[in-house]
Amino acid sequence: MTEFCQQNLAGARFERVNLRGAAFTRVYLNDTRMHAVDFTGARIRGALFNRSDLRGIELVDVEINGVIENVVVNGVDIAPLIDAELNRRMPERAKMRPEDPDGFREAWAVLERLWAGTVARARTFPEEALHRGVDEEWSFIQTLRHLNFVSAGWVGRMVLCEAAPWHRWDLPWDEAPGWDGIPWDREARPPLDEVLAVRRERQAMVRRVMESLTDERLGSRVTRTEPGWPQAENFPLKECLHSVLHEEWEHRLFAERDLHTLEKEI
To answer: Mind telling me which residue stretches traverse the membrane in this protein (predicted)?
Structure first.
């Protein structure tokens, strides 16, 4: 097997090349041109397709999960259609993009209620199963660790200006670049109760911020330029909170999906 590591192949030409079964990790394919390529059976995660142009494509038996905006398929922007259908299936989803303080408080109350049910369901599983990932996704406990990381970053660091809001079990996303001083141990197996203890603290932190929101505060902007994550200048505080709501909503759906799969295996 040939390995290409830490090499600059920018501008390289591949023609009649067999890359079947090849693995690409942290590979930059920006502005590439592909013609008559076969992606059958491909598994792509953590990828960016911004400003991509795909023509003459066959999409059959394809599953896509991710952020979909301004995606035109055969002349139709499908993003609003997908959004409307998901809101029809899950009416509370529409509450996850609030624009006023009361809306944020309501959205957070919905999430806490829904997550309480998901955690109660997870507690009926052997703890070993909660450390088991499904289809290469995070385990249930890793999902909780990631949400703890999200709250610490967007609320603890950005909104409350805490210099180091992290806990040792916090878990960044898999494709994160890594930062000095931010924990990142994907393979750790902390007990569920320890992770939930941190989870309750982070939920209470977010709840306090939501409860104290005013129109003026919600319309303000925040800046954190020192090394770490998030790092942003003059960033809308509202978008910090939207990020938390989005992560909480989506990852609960992932967790419920994987618990359903695990339930059939136990």
So the answer is: none
